[in-house]
Q: What sequence folds into this?
């Protein structure tokens, strides 16, 4: 049951209200971690974006079916090849009481450009021009197809509130990655909730913002208490015992338990994070041969991994882009044929196989270490002996940066929700100058593929762009640039009557402002 | 006495210096803190820039000397995650852990003495055998498993107990918020305390039992019996007093172990103390916090051992502190 704080207890209150006693809807949420900071642009992480969507509003946001929905922007139009004009919503106020205008967007944009984590996403943008109080022009250097994608990251900050200096002379607007800052502890957005109490690592209490502009929203939650519960079994137990109303993530081992439990609903959705293995061509001569890479792809049973290890909690993948992305090719199927794999190995001159080293994290992705073990044993069937090492993520990333093993696991979610991002980071020719291929531990390099990515990055005709990206995806698949495994699913557990399935999305930031709890 | 304490203070400083050096030396192997500070797609230049700002590119000795210089002024560094002085973060979390340890200690003392004595004087009773059998079970199940089983039995299936957290706490003073002032707080601390005591309790029952059996065979107990002194007086006044010396020794050492077990218990119950904080700090590679935690725990060890030595003197006046300096 939800906790309805009945105010009947206080007689004076009832007389004062002189009407029906009102009940406050309070929802208790348990995530695996709480946000690092209240600063919306300090760290680019799921936790930050979840917080931002509760306390701030972006210009536009994603809907459940991955379309754009205006929030602070009422409408938008392309006025020339490099300019998108946004008409802003009027009558919006910040938590501080300041009125929201175009200058707040301008100010926020300048601040985002200073954020180490977010400036990469905003790199194609040059400026925000204020046309009038409620109109802005968002400008890019080149024609850029992902203006709206990026506008989902533009959360209006209260420029007057964050202006000036603190008592000890620090700039209130500064972004500090380590150590104290004004913005990491104080917050004023336009969002549906205000932070009323916060004890880091223990809980955050959100109260509904009385002056929220979106009066059309049916959301009726007055208070949200967010508690981090890191341990999976405890988080599930907290939901099942009724101590909390909503949890995320639900670990794969407990999916059926949550599904079958009475009074609790399991909500799952295909996610967009692809889990892959990369084959290092610098370290292993054999990996330079596409036949060997294809043989590995044929040897790995993606469907088996999803079925047995992920317990159905994943979508079998044969490419980086999930369905709905511009580059997604729906005819690609995951390869699996051990005989064919052996033939390819023989054709490449490796009939007797060889030995490789493999590394994977053991606490970063769902069941990452088990997946790596499964892949290692699948490869042994075609004569590739794998020397596997799994590490906690904190130690894994330095190893990954050092390209310390012949095969390395990496999962990727495109911050831009776009196909080109996968290629840019995972499979483009590594180039320290441009940052391309920053996570391409395989050192795969195909200039033709990179050219398609560059074309797509400046092509604003969506159909043409999609064709480029699909061609790109096809090349990567034909050459087995990497081994795609699956897209991790998302799972939430919610008490019955929460109607939580209405507010969740594949991006994993539930829109709590719109949560309508049945009373 | 004074000389002894001064000696102890110097010892404590030496211990903490060694701990800080070890803590500092291993931090390079814990992983890269920047991974937890920065998003995944951040470029290498930005990473290097932040690494410079944090002083992580300096040679080991330079970093360590800087740390010592600050530590002398009471600054053990700033936690990357909490963005507050590491010592302050730990002090904020300390009361929750101490209350948990206190709860477990009460359970251990309250149950181990009567049960230990009973199993010693009635070794063949069914109840004694049951206690000893259960103590084996308790000793062999890891704390985190006990904790999870308890949550599933009493929170999920029966619905009697809350599954996580501290519940309603009342502010006492400073950073101290207590569980013992509200019913909700009491209910929340019961299961974590039991889980935390689940290893120590059986151990102490067995220890007291073994010591008691030995003492009961000694001359003075027989003499007392012959003299016709009431049995309860013999057991609980004369015999028990002499069994306590080794129990206190072990107890002093075990308080330290208990701090280690709080890491598991707190993590499973999401208890906001310094144990769960430490485990998360390791996961996040929050190195200043890790080093500060090790130093604080080292300090707690030294203090408890000193107190144990002092109690020793009270229980057995023939022991001279001066000779125990080592």
A:
């Amino acid at each position: 049951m939800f906790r309805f704080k009945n105010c009947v207890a206080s007689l004076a209150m009832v007389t004062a209200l002189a009407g029906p006693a009102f009940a406050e809807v309070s929802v208790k949420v348990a995530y695996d971690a709480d946000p690092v900071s209240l600063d919306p642009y300090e760290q680019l992480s799921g936790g930050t974006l979840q917080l931002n969507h509760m306390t701030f509003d972006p210009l536009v946001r994603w809907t459940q079916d991955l379309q754009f929905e205006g929030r602070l922007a009422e409408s938008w139009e392309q006025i020339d090849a490099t300019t998108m004009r946004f008409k802003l919503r009027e009558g919006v106020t910040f938590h501080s009481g300041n009125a929201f205008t175009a200058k707040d967007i301008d100010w926020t944009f300048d601040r985002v450009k200073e954020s180490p984590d977010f400036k990469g996403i905003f790199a194609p943008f040059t400026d925000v021009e204020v046309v009038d109080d409620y109109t802005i022009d968002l400008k890019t250097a080149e024609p850029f197809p992902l203006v709206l994608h990026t506008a989902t990251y533009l959360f209006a900050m209260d420029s007057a509130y964050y202006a000036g200096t603190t008592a000890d002379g620090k700039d209130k607007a500064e972004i500090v990655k380590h150590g104290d800052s004004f913005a990491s502890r104080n917050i004023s957005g336009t969002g549906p909730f205000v932070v009323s109490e916060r004890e880091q690592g223990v809980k955050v209490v959100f109260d509904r913002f009385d002056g929220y502009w979106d009066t059309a929203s049916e959301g009726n939650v007055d208070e949200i208490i967010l508690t981090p519960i890191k341990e999976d079994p405890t988080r599930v137990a907290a939901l099942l015992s009724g101590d909390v109303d909503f949890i995320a993530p639900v670990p794969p081992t407990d999916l059926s338990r949550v599904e079958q439990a009475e009074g609790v609903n399991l909500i799952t959705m295909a996610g967009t994070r692809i889990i892959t293995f990369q084959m290092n061509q610098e370290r292993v001569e054999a990996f330079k041969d596409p036949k060997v890479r294809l043989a590995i792809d044929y040897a790995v049973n993606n469907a088996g991994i999803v079925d047995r290890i992920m317990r159905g909690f994943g979508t079998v993948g044969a490419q980086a882009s999930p369905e709905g992305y511009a580059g997604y090719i729906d005819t690609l199927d995951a390869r699996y044929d051990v005989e064919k794999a052996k033939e390819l190995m023989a054709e490449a001159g490796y009939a007797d196989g060889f030995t490789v080293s493999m590394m994977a994290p053991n606490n970063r992705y769902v069941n990452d270490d088990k997946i790596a073990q499964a892949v290692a044993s699948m490869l042994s069937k075609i004569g590739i002996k794998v020397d596997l090492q799994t590490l906690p993520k904190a130690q894994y990333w330095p190893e990954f940066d050092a390209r310390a093993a012949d095969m390395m696991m990496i999962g990727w979610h495109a911050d831009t929700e776009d196909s080109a991002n996968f290629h840019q980071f995972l499979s483009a020719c590594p180039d320290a100058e441009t940052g391309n291929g920053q996570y391409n531990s395989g050192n795969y390099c195909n200039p033709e593929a990179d050219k398609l990515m560059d074309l797509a990055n400046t092509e604003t005709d969506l159909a043409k762009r999609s064709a480029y990206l699909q061609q790109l995806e096809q090349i990567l698949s034909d050459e087995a640039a990497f081994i795609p495994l699956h897209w991790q699913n998302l799972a939430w557990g919610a008490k019955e009557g929460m109607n939580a399935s209405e507010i969740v999305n594949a991006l994993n930031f539930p829109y709590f402002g719109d949560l309508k709890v049945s009373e | 006495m004074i000389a002894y304490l001064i000696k102890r203070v110097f010892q404590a400083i030496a211990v903490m210096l060694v701990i800080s050096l070890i803590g500092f030396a291993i931090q390079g192997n814990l992983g890269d803190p920047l991974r937890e500070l920065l998003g995944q797609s951040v470029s290498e230049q930005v990473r290097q820039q932040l690494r410079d700002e944090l002083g992580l590119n300096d040679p080991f000795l330079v970093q360590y000397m800087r740390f010592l210089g600050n530590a002398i002024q009471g600054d053990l560094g700033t936690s990357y995650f909490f963005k507050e002085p590491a010592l302050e973060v730990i002090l904020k979390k300390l009361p929750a852990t101490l209350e948990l340890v206190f709860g477990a200690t009460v359970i251990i003392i309250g149950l181990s003495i009567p049960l230990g004595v009973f199993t010693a004087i009635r070794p063949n009773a069914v109840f004694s055998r049951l206690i000893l059998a259960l103590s084996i079970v308790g000793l062999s199940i890891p704390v985190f498993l006990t904790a999870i089983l308890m949550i599933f039995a009493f929170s999920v299936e029966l619905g009697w107990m809350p599954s996580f957290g501290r519940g309603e706490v009342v502010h006492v003073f400073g950073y101290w918020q207590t569980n013992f002032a509200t019913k909700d707080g009491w209910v929340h601390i019961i299961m974590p305390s039991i889980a935390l005591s689940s290893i120590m309790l059986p151990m102490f029952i067995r220890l007291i039992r073994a010591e008691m059996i030995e003492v009961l065979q000694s001359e003075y107990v027989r003499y007392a019996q012959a003299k016709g002194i009431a049995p309860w007086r013999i057991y609980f006044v004369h015999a028990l007093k002499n069994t306590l010396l080794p129990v206190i020794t072990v107890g002093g050492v075990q308080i330290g172990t208990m701090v280690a077990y709080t890491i598991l218990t707190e993590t499973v119950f999401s208890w906001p103390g310094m144990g769960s904080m430490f485990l998360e700090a390791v996961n996040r590679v929050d190195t200043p916090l890790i080093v500060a935690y090790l130093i604080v725990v080292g300090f707690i060890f030294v203090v408890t051992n000193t107190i144990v030595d002092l109690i020793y003197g009270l229980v057995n006046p023939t022991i001279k502190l001066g000779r125990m300096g080592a």
Q: What stands out?
A: The longest strand of chain A covers residues 264-279.
